[in-house]
Amino acid sequence: MLKLVAQPHFSTRAMLSALTATALLSVSSLSSAIPFLNKNLPTDKDAELSVGVNVMAVKSAYDLEDSTEVRVLPGIFYDNNRIYARGAQAGAYLINDGVNQLSAYAQLAGNSFDPDDANGALQGLDERKLSAEAGISYQRRTPIGAFRGQFATDVLDESGGNTGRLTYLAKITRNKLTVYPSIGFEYHDAAYNEYYYGVSEEESAETGVAAYKSNSSLNPYVSVSANYDFNDKWAGFANQSVSYVPNEQYDSPMVDSRTEASTTLGLLYKF
């Protein structure tokens, strides 16, 4: 049933989603319309497309019978200085002059909680689902590495929350091996944490699990990615990341670990 509303309400999520979509659709036209964007790197017509498969082992902080979940996901890597794809993230550059990168992006995001896999009374809670987010990213390359800031919002409205990231990234190359260590903080607002870690009064009454209301949080994390070129056509990919679970999430009765971690191994074919 369609409901007409006299006065529209513009949320942060709706505004950021609209801005992201506009940026993704208008990068090429803006490059010619705005003079300073002409300093952007030219489109790399020889950009390499890598496609493959990733096997990811995810250790959740949730109180589950088996806290490690194995996922098999497609892997796509491509960057022609205008658009890019990096695993589960795809975006378009508004600014990309070799030092500064401003881009709009979309990616899979959030967490997942399946009550059927939970312990005890947690099996009576509602499911928490993965979502997708759209956002804006700015990266500055320096002689000592790159610094990146990101802000995104849940476009599928699972949590209705916003996230942010501040990251330092480095690149180390030795012959056919390239390693990318990074460290930073991830911000989750109260809406995000309430959906993934909160327990409502209704859920508490039905299950006996203590009600819990969360606030915004800051999660420190470290990550190391590596890419090894076996030959001109095949490459291997690996990633290990660990995130610390702060009190705003750890104090939830749904959680029983101070860390979340993921390990990824992949094989890529280069076109």
Structure, described:
With 271 residues, the chain is of the alpha+beta class. The protein is built from four helices and 13 strands. A hairpin with a 2-residue loop joins strand 6 (131-142) and strand 7. Mean pLDDT is 88; it is low at 1-12 and 25-33.
Tell me how many strands there are: 13
What coarse outline follows from CA principal-axis ratios?
A: globular
Number of helices: 4
Radius of gyration, rounded?
A: 20 Å
Number of domains: 1
Q: Low-confidence spans: pLDDT under 50, at least 5 residues?
A: 1-12, 25-33
SS strand fraction: over 45%
Quickly name the level 1 CATH class.
Mainly Beta
User: Widest sheet: strand order?
Assistant: 1-2-3-4-5-6-7-8-10-11-12-13
CATH homologous superfamily descriptor? monomeric porin ompg
Q: Level of helix content?
A: 10-25%
CATH-derived topology: Porin
Throw out a few tags for this protein.
271 residues, alpha+beta, Porin, twelve-stranded antiparallel beta barrel, 13 strands, globular, disordered N terminus
List the helices and strands and how they pair.
Blueprint: H1 12-33, E1 50-59, E2 68-79, E3 83-86, E4 89-96, E5 100-109, E6 131-142, E7 145-154, E8 162-169, E9 172-174, E10 177-188, H2 190-197, H3 201-207, E11 217-229, E12 234-244, H4 247-250, E13 259-270
Antiparallel strand pairs: 1-2, 1-13, 2-3, 3-4, 4-5, 5-6, 6-7, 7-8, 8-10, 9-10, 10-11, 11-12, 12-13
